[in-house]
Amino acid sequence: MAKKKWLRIHAGLLPYDQALELQLSLVAARLQGRLSMDAVLFLEHPPVFTMGLRGGRENLLVSEDFLAERGIAVIQTRRGGNITYHGPGQLVVYPILDLNAVRLGLREYVERLEDVMQAACADFGISAIRSPANRGIWAGPRKLGSIGVAVRKGICFHGLALNVNLSLLPFEWINPCGLNGIAMTSLALETGREVSLAQARQSVQHHMAEIFQREDVPADINHSQLTIANE
Amino acid sequence: MKELHELNLPEDVRYSQDHEWARRENGRMRIGIDDYAQDQLGEIVYVELPRTGEVFSKGAEFGTVESVKAVSELFMPVGGKVTAVNTALADSPELVNQSPYGEGWMLEVEVTDPADYDSLMTKADYLKQLKAEA
User: Fold this and answer.
1) Is residue B130 a part of any domain in this protein?
2) What is A4-228's CATH number?
């Protein structure tokens, strides 16, 4: 049987609010049948802290003034999980999938996102593990990749964030994921060599398609208008 | 996930497209999520419900459930005014998994338009829809 196709969109460096708007427009297009296939976004965010549905402000260890001076916003979201940090050098992947159409339960979906990150880490010689402490993937006691998902009428959005070569300093200003005293790490730190975002993206992209058994259809985003490249 | 024939789908409720159920009880309507939805969500760790007195139209978002790292929105199977919410879910959200049509109920509403209920699916219609989706 032919693999189901999905749009693969490289959105570059995209501010958090614009990325959310893009996701919501894709979810709406999917629900209304204007978009006949799933989509997966690959991007980076400029520095930003985001809190989950159940908050996380209590896990912000510095004042909002301190962050404002550095031009970093704190955004309340409605995804799962607690507070986290996004910034350049972190690969963010937002799959927009109709979970009901593929009969995928949320636990299984989250596990697949972990599988993708583990497989990508293995490509760089890192054997990442799962932890009972929290979802996501870990290099020993250090967290490498995080997950936070939302679902609207069976269509998922938000997704995963894999630390590639970002500055880890801002994570010291929070209890990441609401966990006290955990250290964050990155592929660059764990391998002890340079890992570019493009290399990591290529690996994650490959494993996304493999683990979700999809065929990529490269697409471009022009604000709210979706155009499929090479068509 | 459960196979369709394994789903617990009682005959005394009606089902919505969004996998919520509604049951007539003493002139009011009780609302919750069905076995398909709780199975799809996995272990529920948090339920966010509206306050008594709030009014929602059919299809409006009335709350959210959080399972492992995932937040899902809930939609009204019928329109109406909330007359009671299941406060037990604040401390025991797992009741939704354990007993989606019983102790895991979510809202009781005073229905605005009784025709909303009639437009929901019977078990047989709902099963047909699930089979068509799969």
Assistant:
1) no
2) 3.30.930.10
Query: Using the beta-carbon criterion (under 8 Å), do B68 and A135 form an inter-chain contact?
Result: yes
Distance from A63 to chain B by nearest Cα, in Å? 26
Average pLDDT taken over every residue of chain B: 96
CA atoms of B60 and A59, how far apart (whole Å): 32
Contact B70, A152 (CB under 8 A): no
Q: Do the chains contact at B70 and A108, CB–CB below 8 Å?
A: no
- A83 and A49 Cβ atoms separated by less than 8 Å: yes
| Higher pLDDT pick, A220 / A142 | A142
Q: How many domains does chain B have?
A: 1
Q: Is the ipTM of this complex over 0.85?
A: yes
A99 close to A109: Cβ distance less than 8 angstroms: yes
Nearest chain A residue to B16 by CA distance is A153
The domains of chain A are located at 4-228
CB proximity B39 to A under 8 Å: yes
- Which residue is closest to A153 within chain B, CA to CA? B18
Q: Structural domain of residue B56, as residue ranges? A: 14-114
pLDDT of residue A12: 95
A177 has catalytic annotation = yes
